[in-house]
């Protein structure tokens, strides 16, 4: 079930809670905290609910539920132990287009109450769509420990100064930089130490300083092979600071989802026969956006410096005086092998690893076939799906044994990962039989046979 996250303003709005037990009591408390006018309908109610009614904080109706009570409410909470009544309430709410939460029944609910981390006015809500509320609560507990209580004060300070900040920094990029410094610099530190007055003064002083000239930059970020969990923390921070993201074709949608929502995303994937042209376009885009003061992330699959032309891009940026930095990524050989259960080195099988690329005839002609055919080493061949026959013939012609194990790892580290294993003599036929397609990495060497015993991720090797 996919839910649309929504924070509702219930201040002064009527909400009906049907049920008077402890569960209803738990539902009433956050509704009151949000300023709702709460009506509780229950023949019997807990002492705490009766006490709230006596204080005038809720309206308690001990009469039997009447349909016309729904006419003036914005939300309905069904918190009774009577399943038939809960179903009826859900049906009536649906007919009137009123959102309803039926406690412990996700199928009848049109809204779900999330687990909440409260740093008012900052609120973080976690929902499992009713599938696993205990998991949502566990995540909330972890976030409670991670998020400093002063974040609420920081959010409130930002709200007080918002209009003055917008007036001082009318351009979005400059405003974003100011907020970045506000939320991570001296002002935030003062609030953590309980010095609110000094934090206000520091904010005023920061706004009084002349805006610094906007200077753009480029960060080359390795996105890894696809699993978003393999993106580094520094890479994640860069994606959340970026104004513009130039991303390769093989960067997974899940990794791109981690980027800042308002960043401009430009796909710059290369096509066969157009590598040089597209690379020139990438250089032009990096220069254009950096010179306009933007923070550019050049997001590359795997690692920027392993068959990624990252070195050429840095040379270009340096020639044109653009500031840059590099965030390494987990390259395909490391990630795909690990996700297939294949150690690239092994005391009994391989004492060396050789990374090679076979994406075109020119790269194949430049390979040292004799060195590649040596025993007791692991070959990791990038972009070699279209050249498997040449690889097979060349390696065997230079002495690599036909019975050498191989593993072809397609979509390594992703949900649809496939691992095809066999021996070098059967490499081409096996790839054709299983219709292996790019992106796929070839691992050749005795360690490849370990995939059959050590596989742990995705489908079993075939």
From TrEMBL:
Q: Where does S-adenosyl-L-methionine bind?
A: 225, 301-303, 306, 331-332, 383, 412
Q: Which reaction does it catalyse?
A: uroporphyrinogen III + 2 S-adenosyl-L-methionine = precorrin-2 + 2 S-adenosyl-L-homocysteine + H(+); siroheme + 2 H(+) = sirohydrochlorin + Fe(2+); precorrin-2 + NAD(+) = sirohydrochlorin + NADH + 2 H(+)
Q: Which residues carry this modification: Phosphoserine?
A: 128
Q: Which residues form the Siroheme synthase central domain?
A: 121-145
Locate the region Uroporphyrinogen-III C-methyltransferase. Answer: 216-462
Task: List every stretch annotated Precorrin-2 dehydrogenase / sirohydrochlorin ferrochelatase.
Answer: 1-203
Residues covered by the Tetrapyrrole methylase domain:
218-427
Active-site annotation: 248, 270
* A molecular function GO annotation: precorrin-2 dehydrogenase activity
- What is the superkingdom listed in this entry's lineage? Bacteria
Q: What does this protein do?
A: Then it catalyzes the NAD-dependent ring dehydrogenation of precorrin-2 to yield sirohydrochlorin. Finally, it catalyzes the ferrochelation of sirohydrochlorin to yield siroheme.
Q: Which family does it belong to?
A: Belongs to the precorrin methyltransferase family.
* Name of the protein described by the UniProt record: Siroheme synthase
From which source organism is this entry? Rhodanobacter terrae
Q: What is the lineage of its organism?
A: Bacteria, Pseudomonadati, Pseudomonadota, Gammaproteobacteria, Lysobacterales
């Amino acid at each position: 079930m996919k839910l649309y996250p929504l924070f509702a303003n219930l201040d002064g709005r009527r909400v009906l809670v049907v049920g008077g037990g402890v569960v209803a009591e738990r539902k009433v408390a956050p509704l009151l905290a949000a300023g709702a006018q709460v009506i509780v309908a229950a023949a019997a109610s807990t002492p705490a609910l009766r006490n709230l009614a006596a204080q005038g904080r809720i309206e308690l109706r001990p009469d039997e539920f009447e349909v016309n009570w729904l006419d003036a409410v914005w939300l309905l909470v069904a918190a009774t132990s009577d399943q038939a009544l809960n179903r009826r309430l859900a049906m009536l709410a649906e007919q009137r287009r009123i959102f309803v939460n039926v406690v412990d029944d996700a199928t009848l609910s049109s809204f779900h109450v999330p687990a909440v981390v409260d740093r008012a006015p900052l609120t973080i809500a976690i929902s499992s769509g009713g599938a696993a509320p205990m998991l949502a609560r566990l995540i909330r507990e972890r976030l409670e420990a991670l998020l400093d209580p002063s974040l609420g004060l920081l959010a409130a300070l930002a709200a007080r100064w918002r209009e003055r900040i917008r007036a001082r920094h009318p351009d979005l990029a400059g405003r974003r930089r100011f907020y970045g410094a506000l939320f991570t610099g001296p002002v935030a530190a003062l609030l953590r130490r309980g010095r609110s007055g000094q934090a206000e003064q520091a904010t005023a002083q920061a706004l009084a300083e002349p805006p610094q000239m906007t200077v753009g930059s480029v960060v080359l970020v390795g996105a890894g092979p696809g699993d978003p969990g393999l993106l580094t923390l520094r890479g994640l921070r860069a994606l959340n600071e970026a104004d513009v993201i130039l991303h390769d074709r093989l960067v997974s949608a899940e990794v791109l989802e981690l980027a800042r929502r308002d960043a401009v995303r430009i796909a710059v994937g290369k096509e066969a026969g157009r590598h040089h042209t597209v690379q020139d376009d990438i250089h032009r885009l990096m220069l254009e956006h950096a010179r306009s003061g933007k923070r550019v992330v050049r997001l590359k699959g795997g690692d920027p410096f392993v068959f990624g032309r990252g070195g050429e891009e840095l040379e270009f940026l340096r020639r044109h005086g653009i500031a840059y930095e590099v965030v390494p990524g987990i390259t395909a050989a490391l990630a795909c092998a690990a996700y297939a259960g294949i150690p690239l080195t092994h005391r009994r099988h391989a004492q060396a690893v050789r990374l090679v690329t076979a994406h075109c005839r020119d790269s194949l002609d430049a390979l040292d076939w004799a060195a590649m055919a040596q025993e007791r080493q692991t070959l990791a061949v990038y972009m070699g799906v279209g050249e498997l026959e040449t690889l097979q013939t060349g390696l065997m012609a230079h002495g690599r044994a036909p019975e050498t194990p191989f593993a072809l790892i397609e979509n390594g580290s992703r949900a649809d990962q496939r691992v095809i294993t066999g021996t070098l003599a059967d490499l081409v036929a096996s790839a054709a039989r299983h219709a292996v397609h790019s992106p796929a990495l070839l691992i050749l060497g005795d360690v490849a046979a370990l995939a059959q015993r050590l596989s742990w991720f995705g489908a079993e090797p075939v």
